[in-house]
Amino acid sequence: MKSKKKETQKRAHKEAGKPVSALSIRRFAVTYLILMGVFFLLIGLKPVQDLIDLNGLYTRGVVATTTKVLGILSIPCAYQGSIIQLPSISLDVKFGCNGLESVMIYSVAVISFPASWKKKLTGILAGFVIIQAINILRIAALAYSGIHFKGVFEYIHIYVAQGIMIAISLGVFFFYLNYAKSHKEAAA
pLDDT by residue (tens digit) across 168-177? Predict the structure, then answer.
């Protein structure tokens, strides 16, 4: 009986536009922190890396794709492992620069937010594509700046490029929240 009363109260709060409860915020935060810990352990633990190096595979894919984009832009380059070799600079794409961290942070936020699994999977897939496409363009722009603006490359890399990835991930998550909310309202 109490469960039905709580559900009715939650529905009334939702319809009034009021937050459901601090409990849902806490649940989101706890779920987010636990999943981030699990994902970072999966990537960082040596036994897991010995079995399958997710970060290494991901990095090599990003580097190969970025090199193709640079080729399309007529920027001569080659790659080996995580290193992109350019005419006057070499870029070593590491965790944090390969976009995996941004995708993980975004995906964990999507999983932690209450929505159907279909919406979550759609959000993760769309977010992955958007974040990675922008990240590859970001690395290509860094390569260009490394060749043509070597004096300010470090500033662009540390302050501009990292800020862009944070803003993009957050922006894509806000779009996802709007998507999850609008579909929730349409279903109600």
Answer: 999 999 999 9
